[in-house]
Specification:
By secondary structure, this protein is α/β, with parallel strands linked by helices. 65% of the residues lie in helices and 10% in strands. A 6-stranded parallel β-sheet has the order 5-4-3-6-7-8, sandwiched between helices. A two-stranded antiparallel sheet has the order 1-2.
Length: 336
């Protein structure tokens, strides 16, 4: 039993290490970068070999004593740029030593920087990712978490951005690496993993989120995710997309504040469009762009305000007439 708990804690620690936020950045292909560095290292090594071989008469081979060949020049350059230096081949002429000091030594330093820098950069990138993740989590407040970055998730994100929600306040969670990469290309912070896992939701700062939009393709996954989100964040507003009407009560009981049935809504829209094509056109216009809906709401508000102002002026006029009638009635009573 102890071993099982150790294994579970080990799996949890591994998950926590890999569940870092993936922020949008301009990435370079690692293999391409590695090949580029290897090519530059080979160019430096061949340059050093060529320099030594051209000036081979200024070098002495203490072991063979038969001069320096092309292979000896390559061997000398290899042990020199890697700072091994066996001492069997040495420059003896003054100008050869100056060439080693001012040309071979910078080549050696550049060669080491290329090779050692690759390893250091990999370690630095991991540390930098951890620092960026920690800084991102500290500044996340009142943000919107979109769970599921499929067709519905992308539409929800586009609608949020059209309504002036900052892109920095939108976080995406999806189990597919391609969806996470697409969210990063759109400038969104994203997590890759299962949204039903508490560790992942905690790293997305779900407890500090203002709103959570769940757009999963399966109702059972949506119900479990809604339950988990509601437990971790009792006060946030949860909007869930469901597929079947029979699952709506379960989605509401699991903690969803609003439930949208995608399959039923599409079916009703198809039915209305078949009965009256203009209805489908109007609904599509309202859904595809928020401008038409906003214009309609503004027009309705203006009409409501106009009717209210007319009713208010009529009420004030009737009150003045009533007060005038009462004053004249009182004067007539007093005259009697």
């Amino acid at each position: 039993m102890v071993s099982d708990s150790l294994r579970s804690s080990e799996r949890r620690s591994i998950f926590e290490q890999t569940a870092l936020v993936k922020l949008p950045f301009k990435a370079t292909k690692p293999l391409q970068e590695l090949v580029k560095r290897l090519v530059w290292s080979a160019v430096l090594l061949l340059t050093s070999t060529l320099i030594v071989w051209i000036d081979r008469d200024s070098y002495i081979d203490s072991t063979a004593g038969d001069g320096v060949s092309l292979i000896d020049a390559f061997y000398y350059s290899t042990v020199t740029v890697t700072t091994t230096g066996y001492g069997d081949i040495t420059p003896v002429a003054p100008h050869a030593r100056l060439i080693n000091a001012f040309i071979i030594t910078p080549l050696r330093i550049t060669f080491l920087v290329l090779l050692v820098g690759t390893t250091l950069e990999m370690l630095a990138n991991e540390g930098r990712r951890g620092l960026l993740d920690s800084a991102w989590r500290k500044r996340m407040r009142n943000h919107t978490v979109v769970i599921g970055y499929g067709t519905k998730g992308r539409s929800a994100v586009n609608t949020l951005r059209n309504h002036d929600v900052p892109v920095e306040k939108i976080v995406v969670i999806d189990s597919r690496p391609s969806a996470v990469a697409e969210a990063n290309r759109s400038g969104l912070a994203a997590f890759e993993g299962d949204a039903t896992r508490r560790d992942l939701l905690r790293r997305a700062e779900i407890s500090k989120a203002r709103e959570v939009v769940i757009t999963l393709n399966r109702d059972d996954s949506a119900i479990l995710t809604t339950l988990t989100v509601r437990q971790l964040s009792p006060r946030c507003h949860i909007v869930v997309s469901g597929r079947e009407d029979e699952n709506l009560p379960l989605l509401r009981e699991s903690g969803a504040d609003a439930v949208v049935t995608s399959a039923d809504a599409v079916g009703r829209l198809l039915g209305l469009s078949s009965v009256n094509p203009h209805v489908g056109t109007v609904v599509d216009d309202l859904l595809s762009s928020s401008k038409g809906m906003e214009d309609s709401l503004q027009e309705r508000n203006r009409r409501t305000a106009g009717r209210y102002s007319k009713r208010t002026s009529a009420s004030r006029h009737s009150k003045r007439r009533a007060a005038k009638f009462l004053r004249s009635f009182n004067r007539s009573i007093a005259a009697r």
